[in-house]
């Protein structure tokens, strides 16, 4: 059993860089699509929820730029790539905290929170905030 475990570990260690890329792409595409779906600006949907024009413009832009940024920053090696990844991830994390608290406060401290994509977007964003390397 130990040999099998060692073999599996050795095999997957060679491609371990793929895991974070899956998360990065899923996070980036999700944010991009959520933001793009709110165009044209200002977002009529957000205005319908009572947000002012400035917020109805800012929210989709943050989603689109953050989604693209989290993906593209993965292609930049070294310090700049790590820094940009963390900056974009932090922006998306703060964005998701506000989205959950403001738009979905009825989910807090309930199972509903963990049945929705917002908690996963927050979790993956946090992963990239705390991930030590690209």
TrEMBL record:
This is DoxX family protein. The keyword Membrane applies. The chain crosses the membrane at residues 21-37, 57-80, 87-107, 113-130. It comes from SAR86 cluster bacterium BACL1 MAG-120920-bin57. InterPro entries: DoxX. It is found in: Membrane. It is a multi-pass membrane protein. Pfam families: DoxX. One of its GO terms (cellular component) is membrane. Keywords: Membrane, Transmembrane, Transmembrane helix.
